[in-house]
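User: Fold this one for me? It's Phosphoribosylaminoimidazole-succinocarboxamide synthase.
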Amino acid sequence: MTAQTKLYEGKAKIIYPTDNPEILLAVFKDDATAFNAQKRGSIQNKGTVNNIISSKIFQQLEARGVKTHFIESPAPNQMRIKAVKILPLEVVVRNIAAGSLCQQTGLPLGTVLKMPLVEFYYKNDQLGDPLLTRDRILLMELATPEQVDSIIHLALQINEFLKEFFQGCGITLVDFKLEFGLDSQQQLLLADEISPDTCRLWDVSAGDDPNRRVLDKDRFRRDLGNVEDAYQEVLRRVLEAVEKG
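Assistant: Here's what I get for Phosphoribosylaminoimidazole-succinocarboxamide synthase.
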């Protein structure tokens, strides 16, 4: 692989072609960004940690009937994936109020929501990834009505699994981001990654301590320190949970 052969480089991954046009290779980077890349840095071994966690979770989801782009992980920081056309939507599922939900609604940090909230954001850095309504999604033709319905159903299904899975790791799943894509058969697949980069994860053993409990990219966003240690701790617990079955 060379720089000339890469198909795409994003904030967290580089995508390369393979001999099979239906299969791509994603290489996870150690680069870290926040606030639409206004803040940049690096987290040691982040690419490897996020790839391993994502691979394990994708495999768990596949076993439960959720179709994903995951094929295999040929190296610690690499994932072979099915080629998909990513829908320009970030799908955020919230169980507890945090981040922009608190900023935009005034809800106190840590408020447990009566039911999971599924939100859509437009994947467009120039516009600041704005929050979208269902009608705006349809107006902009970012997805069909059927695809929106399927995404909501899948997002809630994934949320139920992830909440239980992370609870078994001694971690509270606050919220998380998903991305979906269409394969060559126009089948909707879960794509991107599920990791401390894309999830808010709170350590149950830390109680209500607002800083010590954070095990995700908020440690980088908010300059809380010990970012690498937090990511490694999530990896350790995920691997332990998977081994226990």
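One thing worth pointing out: The two ends are 36 Å apart (CA to CA).
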